[in-house]
Task: structure prediction
Amino acid sequence: MAQQDTDQQHAGVLPVDDEGFVIDTEEAAERELAYRERGTSRPITVVGNPVLHKECKDVTEFGDELQQLVADMFASQHTAEGVGLAANQIGVDLKVFVYDCPDDEGKRHTGVVCNPKLVELPADRRRLDDSNEGCLSVPTAYAPLARPDYAEVTGQDERGNAVKVRGTGYFARCLQHETDHLYGYLYIDRLSKRERKDALRQMAENEPRYPVVAND
Result:
């Protein structure tokens, strides 16, 4: 079946392909614009803020408050020129992330995932990509980090409907990175001590290009 049943076709629900994965590439630019025009950009929390270093709470209410949070997240992501943003990156303790990210074929993916879980891939499908990675919560710092070049995430959309999202290349990295955030991990937590120290040095030596929340 190419998309979800007609009675589920309402705001916030994406069509799905024959394997049940969301089709998040259609009208991606228009959807991203519609989200962020309803939102207010918020400053980004940075490494050291407690909300970034613990598992977030599950999303259980899928009403107007969540819709506004999602809109604010898209607005904040756009201001910071990011490709993905987790709720705790704007100080909100909830398991939700948004994305507006290209894959390795240059296709633009735009969507929302609440309560995400990464699907464990069998060994024969795990090909590592050690490209550079950065994070809006560790501004101006980058480091190579090996991650699988394909990822699948299950969860719910902003209306509470079950969703499956998959991605390759840069988008696969984004899905893994944002899911990590919601369980209390920054990408620098996966680096060696030397690499982490270097990333924090890069951050300290440069000014972020977007508003951030200073740690007390």
Summary: The CA atoms of residues 141 and 201 lie 8 Å apart.
